[in-house]
Amino acid sequence: MAWTDLSICLEGPVVDDIRAHFVQRWNFEYDLQYAPAINDRIERLKLSDSDDRYHNNGTNMHAFANFLEPSHTKRASGEDRGLSVQLVRSVGRWSHGTPTEHSIANAYVSVIAKSEHFIYIENQYFITGTSDDQTFVLNKIGAAIVERVIRAAKSGERYRIIVVMPAVPAFAGDVQYDSSPGTLAIMGLQYKSISRGKHSIMQRIRDAGVDPDDYISFYNLRSYDRIDTSANVENQSGVSYESARKEHDDVVGAGYNGRGEDTSGNSLPNSQYNRYQQAARSEQCKDNNADSSGMQRRSDSTIVPQASHHYEEIDAIVSEEVYVHSKFLIADDRVVIVGSANLNDRSQLGYRDSEIAVVIEDTAVVDSHMNGEPFPAARFAAGLRRQLFRRYVGLLPRQAANQSHNNFPPLSATGNDYDWGSEGDRLVQDPLSESFDMLWKNTARMNTKAFDKVFRPLPSDSVRNWDDYEEYYGQYFASPSVSGAEDLGTNLKPKFQYGHVFKHNFPGGIRDVRLELEKIKGTLVEMPLDFLVEIEDLEKEGFSEDFRPEVYA
């Protein structure tokens, strides 16, 4: 599965805050777990601090909880680069030995409320509340979104919120209720946060007489590639693709469960993996992957690699969602919140999961535009958003994995290199312009239609209930992991492999598949907000009386 995430490199005074946070956590765990009489090799930590902002046990003399409290913000600024960096956290008695702190949630609410033009959110989850009347979703980031949109509508402002999140969150596997109740629980809670029910963001906006589609939209990411399991390679090497894969997985790591594939794999020249790879090099393919779908096209090539055996090529093309693991927000191309916190109660309330994040404001500006007008944008925030948007709509410069690049050196040495003023940069510069709106929405629409035709993925707006699920997907892609498969035997054998080409749509074969895939630019697709919309309380599907929403919210 493809994966997207965001990490940052920090230097300067904010590192003192991070050190203090670590010392607090270490000493809290030390007091719980260790005693000198039991283990004299592990000690409590003392913090040496350059400007006496912390006690030597890591306790902050200026509370983290006061988000953007002036004296703390000043001390945490990155003087060399003109950056103001504020550490924020979700911590509590059980996790950190401190009073409950939810300064990450405070930051999200504050930044959304103060935003003037535009919010971009990219997060692994989207579970939030809009009203105090809700029973088990308590964070109010959704309420801040509703209030800001309604305020924009009443004042006649052009304002926009874009959210990118995973198509299927949390767990791998089928979304059928009896095989993945946890996945459906999260999806159900997310749909109720976004568009279903009286407390959803869209319904609250609609109740105020405002069309939510004019202000907020949700998207997923999807990609495709080629996995070459050529019979020619298998015959030449004497090794099946699966055998080579399993041995390689054992060599590089046994995975989360630690059991691995039990192949006794090694990296010697005569290993199954190396024999397979050697044979694969002799296969004449134009390219090895479809990574260029996120980049500007070459005029002399097709996006889909061409194998020497067309009857195998159609089976080698596969698609999966790009799993969004990021957790950040960009406001007005001026402020960035980035860290470990998901957009849900578990990460935002403070007394549940512990999290850490930073709020970044850059005083270095670049000339930009917002809603067609000249606009001084923050260099860090604007560059980050534009780079991501160009990747999602297929406007990145081509980059070969075996060639050097200006962004290879460590960030602490050179910073990020970005091609300001390039054609691709100009196309995504103004997130409120009509031209960008058309580019973004039309790309998402075209990509969605192409992926639906070639792969018939889930979730889909064509599946509104479980009967639709069976008609649209289950009868073609039934998985042996579905409950009851062992009793049905060969009757459940799928007509098509999961994630592979839906051949019923392509009687003309691989050429027609290529023509459809060439329509795809980048990875952006529309989020299917009507998936299983006719199932009431989707989050409870697959559970009996013991459904506990707080586990998933």
UniProtKB/TrEMBL annotation:
It holds the Pfam family PLDc_2. It is an enzyme of class 3 (hydrolase). Residues 320-347 form the PLD phosphodiesterase domain. PROSITE patterns: PLD. This is phospholipase D. PANTHER family: PHOSPHOLIPASE D. Coiled coil: none annotated. GO terms for biological process: phospholipid catabolic process. Residues 263-281, 290-300 have a biased composition (Polar residues). Its EC number is 3.1.4.4. GO terms for molecular function: phospholipase D activity. CDD domains: PLDc_vPLD1_2_yPLD_like_2. Keywords: Hydrolase, Lipid degradation, Lipid metabolism, Repeat.
